[in-house]
Amino acid sequence: MIILKTIEELRLMRESAQLVSKTLGMIAAEIKPGVTTLHLDKLAHDFIKDHGGEPAFLGMYGFPNSLCISPNEEVVHGIPKDIPLEEGDILSVDCGVYMNGFYGDHAYSFEVGEVAPETKKLLQVTKESLYKGIEQCVRGKRIGDISNAIQTHCEKHGYGVVRELVGHGLGRTMHEDPQVPNYGRKGSGKVIKDGLVVAIEPMVNLGTHQVKFHKDGWTVTSLDKTPSAHFEHDVAVINGKPVLLSTFKFIYEALGITSNEEEPFTMDF
Question: In the chain, N or C terminus with fewer CB closer than 10 Å?
Fold first, then answer.
């Protein structure tokens, strides 16, 4: 069952999502060769607690850490490790916060130093596909319109769109209806209504779309071990239009990036 949110609830959700965004911005400044993902995890845990939230991933379904950190060919759900990052790595950092009775869930794929041009393009196209999907999150359209927009954009560049892992509704629980696949047919799936909140999160491989699930019960890698990219925003539908609850602006401030990509999806409410 899809649970539609009131404006008051959406304001609380925005606070939760923004704490995730601020956490990712803090982490962005720390990512460099020689830093371990376990160190980044500890920084995020303390930052979230210090700002009045709870690390949502810690203990969820038995997950042992506060961040899912997935380098290189790892798609999602990577467990932080005491292994230093290296020049040329990429790193998906997925963070969740529980605050005000609601969850925020938000991810970004970072470059560690100078990365290979083909990997840099994968990150760019995957992030573009996120906004292509968000554009379709409009009252009266269907979830399949979001899915198809993401798939079409990524596959025209020859990338593999992961099938086994999907975006999802978000609210008082981390994973609500509806599921939001990154592939699908236009006009299929649930109708989009005002008050819907979804975490849209393309997961895209440089090579095959096929993945491998590892014995630790969490780690997922591309089957051909090519790099994988992952970006995620929390999106609400307000007055018929998609509105971002999360933001990459704190990341961009930390990294010195100028962008206006979020402007079409920004609204005071």
Answer: N
Q: What is the pLDDT of residues 227-247, one digit of tens each?
A: 999 999 999 999 999 999 999
Give bridge partners of residue 204 from the DSSP assignment: 161, 229
Q: DSSP secondary structure string, 91-130?
A: EEEEEEEEETTEEEEEEEEEE-SS--HHHHHHHHHHHHHH
pTM, 2 dp: 0.97
- 2-33 pLDDT tens trace: 999 999 999 999 999 999 999 999 999 999 99
Which tens digit of pLDDT belongs to each residue from 142-156? 999 999 999 999 999
| Residue with the two structure tokens 């999150």 | 137
Q: How is 174-234 classified by DSSP, letter by letter?
A: SSEEEEE-SS--TT-SPBP-TT-EEEE--EEESS-S-EEE-TTSS-EEETT---EEE-BEE
Percent of the chain with pLDDT over 90: 100
Contacts of 8 (CB under 8 A, 6+ apart): none
CB-CB contact of 67 with 93 (8 Å): yes
Distances (CA, A) of 37 to 78, 80, 90, 93, 253: 10, 5, 12, 9, 21
Classified as helix, coil or strand, 164 is: coil
> In 3D, which of 188, 161, 164, 201 has the Cα closest to residue 68?
201
pLDDT at 80 (0 to 100): 98
**Tokens 């209806």 appear where?**
177
